[in-house]
Amino acid sequence: MTLHKHWKGIALFLLPALVLYGAFFIYPLGFVFSLSFTQWNGISPPVFRGVQNFIDLALDSTFRLSVRNNFIWALSLGFLQIFLAALVAMILSRRPAGWRVLRTVYFLPNVISQVAIAMLWMAIYNAEHGVLNQILTAVGLEQWTHNWLGEIETALPAIIAQQVLYIGYFMIIILAGTMAIPVSFYEAAEIDGANVWQQEIHITLPMERGILITSMTLAMAYGMRHFEATFLMTAGGPANSTSVMGLMLYNKMGFLDYGHANAVGAVLIILGGVVIVTIRSLLGQRQAAAEMRQ
Amino acid sequence: MRKTTSPAVDAIAKTGKWIVLGFFLIITFIPLLWLVISSFKTDLELINKPFLLPKVWQIQNYVNAFQLSDLHLLFLHSVIVSAAATALNIFVASMASYALSRFRFGLNNVILSIILAGVLIPIIALMVPYFQLISKLGIYDSLGALILTYAAINLPISVFLIHGFMGTVPKELEEAGLIDGCNFWQRYARIVFPLSRLGVVTAGTFVFLYAWNEFIYALLLTSSVRARTLQLGIRFFKSQFRAEYTSMYAALVVTMIPSIAVYILFHEKIIQGLSSGAVKG
């Protein structure tokens, strides 16, 4: 369509989106990075202090623990959750009885709020009358019972497990890709005598490579951003053992320590970017932007 | 030696397949079912017989839920915030998508890429600037703060979904509109927007669910009950309900009903929306 007649309309139509995007994406990014070099309480003017905030963070054992936990989250989601999601997608792609219903039910927890899910799992993990301990006791495994969210050894695995097992989101993405592979490929392989495993390894996996890498990248990015379940279920405890960067940011803000809060934010953004770039270059795929659009 | 699968291997594979499917069915569904059933029990039944059905289904728990908390008010707030954020988001995103997908002006791809790159930014890292921005706008602790924030955060995903659909509307239809004297706004509102409704509905579903379930910024950008949404309200349930767990579970079930209703109505759209990203990727 001819442009010169419409430029006013185009500009007017783009304006609201650009204003909102500028206010909620571009300005905040600049804000986080520039104020991460200052000492600031949100009221008096910020005081520049170079990279001191970042040095403070590097020396802070809770922050180092948080970064470690974020990487544990990223690896658990990126590998374990994607593996499970791919496994289930592989099974469902062969359209077993009831596969549509199963697909719908598996995704159900993903539409329910993290807060409600956290409350539910707190009831499951509860030390005294939690569902998990009751089941263990009932089947004679009393020695396996724990104060799941209250013990240092079990708290982090318990929160992570609760998220890793909700495979619905990535299962649907991977399943869609698998189902887009022409059936004739499998038929040809079957005529050549390939069994189901051989078909999956020699047809599905190579054709799915792009989607699997995208899913891993996204899952790891989510791991670096993790906040809600930890905030609600343990608030970082016991003894900071489940702390993550997002939680530290929130706590620093609570103390009106906006300089350090923004420094944590800056590290979170940078490490998130590093994880995305690393996994993509390691796995030899570089069309990052195109594939991250979901 | 062509056939590599024996009946025994087949049987093991089959059993394994159903074990995996059954396991995830239990994980994703049974805890939710347990919560719903528990919300109809007495507190004594919940503690003593957690896995049995209630003797008498306690509808009273749901009455308590509304009496012990401000559930009706929180519910209303959540409905307003989610509906308004979805409307604002779809309005802004669809106008931008129209300009970006129906005209070529050199900057198209640059603007589109910048907007879509928004999904790469961890929104959680932006707590301090969002708090400052909302405070400076003078809308801290108001529903407006959440409406604006949720609408903005979801621009990238909505533009992604709607832009794709708008690009497929045939040019001839728009040209026919032009000949009939439709102006810029009319061609968007009467021709292209209605014809992209598949993308619009999918995007709207995502934004609504996001807004309904959002917690972090509801926590950060509001402080009093006048702007409190359901998700934030759940945090206060523990102190409001004290030991009355079953009433608290009833309140929890109430907070989930809209999400589940939207999912039942639109699950095809949600699955389609996620799948479209996958296939394009």
Explain what this protein looks like in three dimensions.
The complex is a heterodimer of chains A (294) and B (281). Chain A is 71% helix and 1% strand. Chain A has helices at 7-35, 52-59, 61-93, 99-107, 114-125, 131-138, 152-164, 168-179, 183-191, 196-225, 228-233, 245-254, 258-282, 288-291; strands spanning 38-39, 47-48. In chain A, helix 3 (61-93) runs antiparallel to helix 10 (196-225). Chain A starts with 6 loop residues before the first helix and ends with a helix. Chain B folds into two domains: 7-60, no CATH class; 62-280, MetI-like (MetI-like fold, Orthogonal Bundle), CATH 1.10.3720.10. Chain B has 14 helices and no strands. Chain B has helices at residues 7-38, 43-48, 60-68, 71-102, 108-116, 127-136, 143-153, 155-166, 171-179, 184-195, 197-213, 216-221, 230-241, 245-280. In chain B, helix 3 crosses helix 14 (245-280). The longest helix of chain B is centred in the C-terminal third of the chain and has 36 residues, at 245-280. Chain B is globular and about 75 Å long. The chains are: A mainly alpha (294), B mainly alpha (281). At the A-B interface, helix 1, helix 3, helix 4, helix 5 and helix 8 of A face helix 1, helix 4, helix 5, helix 6 and helix 7 of B.
Task: Describe the SSE topology.
The complex is a heterodimer of chains A (294) and B (281).
Chain A lengths: L6 H29 L2 E2 L7 E2 L3 H8 L1 H33 L5 H9 L6 H12 L5 H8 L13 H13 L3 H12 L3 H9 L4 H30 L2 H6 L11 H10 L3 H25 L5 H4 L3
Antiparallel strand pairs in A: 1-2
Helix pairs in contact in A: 1-13, 2-13, 3-7, 3-8, 3-10, 4-8, 8-10, 10-13, 12-13
Chain B lengths: L6 H32 L4 H6 L11 H9 L2 H32 L5 H9 L10 H10 L6 H11 L1 H12 L4 H9 L4 H12 L1 H17 L2 H6 L8 H12 L3 H36 L1
